[in-house]
Amino acid sequence: MNTLLKDVFGVFKFAEGLYAGIRKLLVPPKAYSWQTFIYLSIFSWILSYCATGYIKDIIAFFGWLFLIAGTAWYTTEDPLRVPGTFMPVGAVITGFLVSVFAFGDQRDVITPRTIVFWPTISALITAIPEFIEGNDTDAKARIPKPQDRQRIIILVASSMLLSCWIQFHFVTDNWLRQYPSLQADTFKHSTFLVRTEQAVKIPRNGVVILQRLQPIVVEQIAQRPWSEVEKWLLDAKQRVGNLGREIIKKNLSKYEEKELWRVEPRVTNTKSGYILDLLSIWIGPSSNPRGYYLKKSCRIEPLAAATNSENKITVAEIECDRASKLIPGSPPPQQ
């Protein structure tokens, strides 16, 4: 019986201690405390949700200020340091809130700029107290001691360097999204880029151009009188160039690299007819000084065909390669 009573009292004592801890965390010991700022921020956001227009933005603005002030106050009372540095974890949290407040928006709270400036803002928040001495009621500016200046400079500089590398990530990621054909290139001689996945064998946009171009060319040539086809081939440069520009404008409109593709034909005589090479030429940056291009060859030959009056005329027959070929170097000169 005594053991049972001890267990019951032990449970009550644990619950009482838990309640006291929660109460200490949630109930401000005095009006001027970090809990007050947190509650003011919550109250401001509730009011801003009910408000409209510029009043809503003003109330939300103060809500962010209260949240940043309360978080900074709470996390600096008993600071936990980031391992290997003198930066408090609270400064990292506060820096994130400041970055979100400064560079976020209503649609995307966390933007690339939020992540980029986060380390630098956290380092500056860590460094600011080093330039202030005194307490809350009597504070004045001071110059840090020489031994403190070195660690402040190292912390801020390393954080700025980290921000630069994060920005570099977002820049290269944007490049590869706007210029996906760059992924077909090689980075084996790069000192700062390492390929972590299998290389793209052939630039997809170059293939798309030729895939869309081929059926249009076939439609304009197949089963047409041979004399008309030969005339078409004489004007192939202008005809294919115009078709290529239309295809690029339609199919590559969402990519910035649309300006870096050019379409040209190459016509070669053979014993039985002609070879029409359709080229999509990359004029953007490349590890090969001479660049590269994609080629799809079409063989055009005359074919005798009977008309309704049983008179035979010569028409064109065209057959194109199924796949595009990636060829490094400059395209051959036009004849």
Describe this structure in words.
This protein has 335 residues and is α+β, with helices and mostly antiparallel strands. The chain contains nine helices and seven strands, in the order αααααββααααβββββ. The chain has helices spanning 2-26, 34-50, 53-77, 89-103, 112-127, 146-178, 204-221, 226-234, 236-251, and strands at 132-134, 139-141, 261-269, 274-282, 292-306, 312-320, 325-328. The strands form two sheets. Strands 3, 4, 5, 6 and 7 form a five-stranded antiparallel beta sheet that branches. α4 packs across α5, α5 (112-127) runs antiparallel to α6 and α7 crosses α9 (236-251). The longest helix has 33 residues, at 146-178. The chain is elongated, with a radius of gyration of 35 Å. The relative contact order is 0.06. The mean pLDDT is 78.
Mean pLDDT: 78
Give Rg in angstroms.
Answer: 35 Å
As residue ranges, the low-confidence spans are: none
Count of discrete alpha- or pi-helical segments spanning 4 or more residues: 9
Class by SSE composition: alpha+beta
User: How much helical structure, as a percent, in the residues?
Assistant: 40-55%
Main sheet record: 5 strands, antiparallel
Global morphology: elongated
Share of β-strand residues = 15-25%
Query: What is the H/E string?
Result: HHHHHEEHHHHEEEEE
User: Count of DSSP E strands?
Assistant: 7
Give the termini separation: 108 Å
